[in-house]
Amino acid sequence: MRWLLRKDLLILRRSRLLVALLIVYPVAIALLIGFAISRSPSRPRVAIVDETPPGETIQVGGQRVEVSQYARHLFSQVQSVSVSSRAQAVERVKSADVLAAVVIPPDIAARISSGTAQGELEVIYNGDALEQSLVQSQLGSALAQANLGFSEQLQRAAAKAIDLLLKGGNLGVLGAPNDLIGLDQIPPVLARVIAHRPPGSDRAALERVASFADFAAQNLSVSKKVLSTVGQPIRVKSTLLHGRRTPLNTFAVVVAVSVSLMFVCVLLAAGGVALEREERALPRLVRGLVSRESLLAEKGLLAAGCSFVVALAMLAGVGGFVSLDWGRSGLWLLALAFGAIAFGSLGVAIGALAREVRRADELEGLDALVIPGGESTTISKLMDAYDLAGPITTFSRAGGLVYGTCAGLITVARDTVEGLPPTLDLMDIVARRNAFGRQVRSFEADLAVAGIGPAPFRGVFIRAPWVESAGPGVEVLAICEGRIVAAREGGVLVTAFHPELTDDTRMHELFIAMIRRREGAASAPAGAAQPRAPGEPVRAVAAPANR
Which residues span the domain enclosing 223? Predict the structure, then answer.
């Protein structure tokens, strides 16, 4: 493996521009992602129409606040835009210059100060704005805070008035006496008066008044607590802990570094394996110079090492702008190492386990071939144009396995009922094209498929064929509406439905099992599948589909 690693490092040294692009691109993408995450959301533009007279104040509970000053504080969560009239505000909302508008009517101060009438604000929204939910949330929060503030002031004013009613004194209301007697003082005063009154109707009336005054005083003192509970039924008790924090900037760094690690690792690993494959070196290497496991491990570890270095450099650079807890660097290195190995394995899988076959020489070194669904006439014409029909037939006859789905079933058949298109004659079946009807007659059905277990398989039929007739050596695997829709013969498997369109992998597992049963086969002629050692990964590929 050492000489293979030296070869790859030499290739990287000679491809400096490619390596630079491979590193700069994911790092740039990662930094953009991190910048976007770390930014706080911008404040939406909202038009404010203040129709109150200049200098108008709101008086609640003995406090006076200017309407304009309170409006600025109220709408501090948005970017306020002052406009002079409601019509101008509506026009700005329609033109999308602002996302919403708030109209403060001229009588709001008088209504709130009265304590008996509700103030009213008009909010105008742009119903087609993408940020509408954010605007509604922020304005709703601002208005809720305003209502809570007014409610607390009204509670304090009401509590003060109740205290004056209980204890007496000056109410501060125009026309009220300067020294009112309180309800708490009425029962003892009446008791002294009653003591000097003879028994009779007058004394009984005074005793009733004294009883009422005592009852009112006791219950009015309770009403202060009731007002507080009604105004704020649930009180939030906040506890501030000074523990370890994970700020949003740190989270952005994690996302950026992880994305960069993934891009570099996956692209290098997949590209390394693809390069060996495109240069036709892969089949020669695995025949004796190095095992497939060693080759894949070398590509994965090289990609993991390179991406690990890039991620470390990026982390150090970003650390100059964002405060990071370097005391946990040991855990960071461990996480980066495991992540690099995982992404390297993913890249090797992407680059090694499957590839498209567009030319006859790309069949070399393969274990199996998948001919997917599509349009059988187009597939036949493309095979003729690229001279693939003969090599695929040779590949199958020499021991390579073939799986045909939908149009692939027609392609591998001995013949079709219609006589067209030309087929490969890899399986002793006659296929009927569009047997279940045209595209609009596509359907799904639960199928009992032999060899994959008792649970039904959900078959997706799209302008599907069926097997009109099958030779004696063909094993029928599934029937739908009395017709054969899945079968196999030797190393060829066919299905009239699309197993790749479901989450059920059992049909693919059946095909993999067929491939593994061919392990240990004798070497095939040029263009055929090469034998594998026990435990080697299976490499099944797909020919291009055309719908």
Answer: 183-231
